[in-house]
Amino acid sequence: LQLLLCLQFWLLVLDQKRKERVIKMVFRDLNLEQNLIENLESLGYKTLTPIQENSLKYSLEKKDIIARAKTGSGKTLAFCLPIINNLDKKKYRVQSLILAPTRELATQIATTLREVLRSTQNIKVLTLCGGVPYRPQVVSLEHEAHIIVGTAGRVLKHINEGNLKLENINTFVLDEADKMLDMGFFDDISNVCSLLPKQRQTLLFSATFSNEIKNLALEFLNNPVNIEVEDEEQNIIKQVFYEVNSRDAKDNLIEKLIKKYQANSTIIFCNQRVTCEELADSLYERDIDALTLHSDLDQKQRDETLTIFSNKSYPVLIASDVASRGIDINDIDLVINYDLALNYKIHTHRIGRTARAGKGGVAITFVLPNEAKSALEIKEHFPDIVFEDEKEIVFDNSFEIDSIFRSIFINGGKKQKLRKGDILGCLTVALELNVNDIGKIDVFDFCSYVALKKAKLKFVLENLQKTKIKGKYYNIYEK
């Protein structure tokens, strides 16, 4: 028996080493630096997604590309690697510019870039978005950066005021270009493009290939390679439409549907901010905790909302379409379109929040009587959509719509030299918490968020205030 167990152990070791060699060969074939390959492996990149595999062989040769790729397809890495490949690390000048439609998406792109580049020293990634103070961005630009990620309006303002220098840019990325056009940013994009160096690589990513996108590519890209990968998401997202007569009927269905699919994480989309808040009140009356995300929230509030939802501290997020493109969470079980999307493009972006990273998902849409024609127009683009009768909904009433975690806020972060390991160590050593009682830890510049099992929340709130983290006391609050 001991011999057999020993043999099984060594077979597992050999299999793991074989997998590691496969992983390294995938990225070595792309002629990436060894430290970058090792970092990608440590970040969990095991293989290339279809969009990465199809685009990198051209983009790493510095060719322009126009690619159809949805959020969750791995496109961020698909343009991060060409940016890094084109980077002169010793040259402390802005060499890459990435435009995104929303602040949230720009922030997430910057986060991914910093993770991929964490094994490379002294590379500065700067985010330039509206909705946050302007002056600190000006100060940061005075000290230059290597890569800029931002929204079109704020980037153009910095360019026009002479804060952002463009002469050294060799890579320009338009991410989710269709959404930027839908939001009316064509003129801003055109103005930015006209000011960039002619000799550059341009990478355009879009969830749909409309005529407007093709015209944009013709105007600003140089002999681009067109890349389309098979749309896998339509095959793994179960889409169901329910005809309803009123808002009250919608509210009553939400609880049943979450219990039917036993969804631990649900996003509900509304067309207007006021609807988000009214629905949150309605769900609260039904003992369902929900967060709201819409354009009336400032950047700090939006960042905090996404952080505590992504760490599983709340079971439901109610969002408007303005915010939908910034939601990049891999394990959303259920999407509910409380209001029918204004067109199939918006519908595409909404349902793309689930079934990410190869996982399955469910998307539910409510249809009022006067929306039947619009619903059928959306169905033309999604043949797999089925209409079901709400009377046929079968659900497990014992399923609790709740989260096992709640978040605490710590008024210290990277600027105070706090790291995830410092917080984890304090909780497990000083407060003697089990590591299983601690969820996701997010550390930002001036604050941190920690997800904790609810049973431990009161204990931590009472004792962490009196406990030093890395030699210093911090204010602690529940979120």
Explain what the structure shows.
The chain is of the alpha/beta class. The protein contains 19 helices and 18 strands. The protein has helices spanning about 1-30, 35-40, 50-60, 75-85, 105-115, 135-140, 150-160, 175-180, 185-195, 210-220, 235, 245-260, 275-285, 300-310, 320-325, 345-350, 370-380, 420-430, 455-465; strands at about 65-70, 95-100, 125-130, 145-150, 170-175, 200-205, 225-230, 235-245, 265-270, 290-295, 315-320, 335, 360-365, 385-390, 405-410, 440-445, 450-455, 475-479. β16 (about 440-445) and β17 form a beta hairpin. The model is unreliable at about 15-25 (pLDDT under 50).
Shape field:
globular
Report the biggest beta sheet as strand number plus sense, adding barrel if it closes: 7 strands, parallel
- In the sheet with the most strands, the strands line up as 3-4-2-5-6-1-7
What fraction, in percent, of the residue positions are helical? 40-55%
Mean pLDDT: 87
The helix count comes to 19
Which residue ranges are poorly predicted, with pLDDT under 50 across at least 5 consecutive positions? 16-25
Strand content: 15-25%
Distance between the termini: 52 Å
User: What is the number of E strands?
Assistant: 18
